[in-house]
Design brief:
With 289 residues, this protein is an alpha/beta fold. The protein is built from eleven helices and 13 strands. Bound molecules: adenosine-5'-triphosphate (ATP). Adenosine-5'-triphosphate binds next to helix 1. GO terms for molecular function: ATP binding.
Length: 289
């Protein structure tokens, strides 16, 4: 199986928002970062993956299976990791383990205690005393203890201090290096992606704008700077969005060759960061970035 998750033409409509015709394939053994502005549809997409929501149209497959008739089997193999308190606040990790462990065929106590030690988590303190980062680690320890192959994380590093953030990213990197796992996580922190992601999926206003390897994305996009008099209807067409200022224009392109052919060395080009792409994609003329 090459794809852990496969969305085919998935649509989910709410009163004031819809996720439209989403095609998404998450590659096995890859780290995929999921980005998009607030309200773009990231959590909705993840809820569809977890079967907390059902699509109005289209098909969601996890590990090559539909949820119908396979829910238990699928959920055994996936872990959803997040920082808010999913467990009773007054419980400690020992209590939680007692409740959660029997639900999983592959639960391994030894692995659990190893991670608790590695993550330096207290077993006997109520979860409500845990910081955000500790809760995230506790949730990750549980997912790893039932040997989840597919791990989904909703903004794992949000609200963590830089040291803790780095530590968590290192833990995730080590987890990936051990092999056999696929990680999908949403984030607003683009440097996290630059640190650990192989692929990036970018959603905007309920539509998937692109899903590429980080490398392809970095090769495809560029920031172009030049003087305003270079802008004509023809040259503007090669840009996703153009910003004008007194000193000239700055624009994003996804076709570096075309810019070179048309404008040559009359413009300056530099690599676009993911943050640049997100900024320019907002309100871009072209729907397809
Ligand atoms: N159950 C629901 N009923 C109605 N509207 C909903 C429901 N769930 C989400 N929405 C709407 O769908 C849109 C997308 O929400 P979603 O939580 O998926 O965005 P997001 O990309 O995760 O945002 P953020 O980065 O802020 O967490 C929002 O406008 C939200 O109000």
């Amino acid at each position: 199986m090459e794809h852990i998750v496969e969305f085919k033409n998935v649509t989910k409509r709410f009163k004031d928002f819809s996720l439209e015709n989403i095609d998404l394939q998450i590659k096995q053994d890859h780290v995929t970062g999921f980005v998009g502005a607030n309200g773009a549809g990231k959590s909705t997409t993840m809820k569809l993956m977890m079967h907390l929501l059902q699509p109005d149209e289209g098909e969601v497959k996890i590990f090559g299976m539909n949820y119908a008739g396979n829910e238990k089997q699928i959920k055994e193999r996936m872990g959803f990791v997040y920082d808010s308190n999913v467990f009773y606040e007054s419980l400690n990790l020992k209590d939680i383990k007692r409740i959660v462990a029997p639900a999983y065929k592959n639960w391994d106590d030894k692995v659990f205690y190893n991670y608790i030690k590695l993550f330096e988590l207290p077993l006997n303190k109520a979860i409500k005393t845990f910081s955000k980062g500790m809760q995230m680690k506790a949730s990750l320890a549980i997912a790893l203890s039932h040997d989840a192959e597919f791990i989904m994380m909703d903004e794992p590093t949000a609200g963590l201090d830089p040291v803790f953030r780095r530590e968590l990213l290192d833990i995730l990197q080590e987890m990936m290096d051990d092999g056999g796992r696929t990680l999908f996580f949403s984030t607003h922190i683009t440097s996290d992606l630059e640190r650990i992601a192989d692929d990036v999926a970018f959603i905007q206003k309920g539509k998937m704008l692109f899903h590429d390897s980080m490398e392809d994305m970095q090769n495809r996009y560029a920031l172009v700077k030049g003087s305003i008099d270079l802008l004509t209807r023809e040259t503007e067409d090669i840009f996703i969005k153009v910003e004008r200022s007194a000193s000239g224009f700055q624009a994003l392109t996804d076709d570096v060759r075309e810019v070179q052919a048309l404008l040559g060395d009359r413009v300056e080009m530099e690599a676009a960061t993911l943050e640049d792409i997100m900024f320019y994609a907002k309100g871009a003329r072209q729907q397809h970035v």
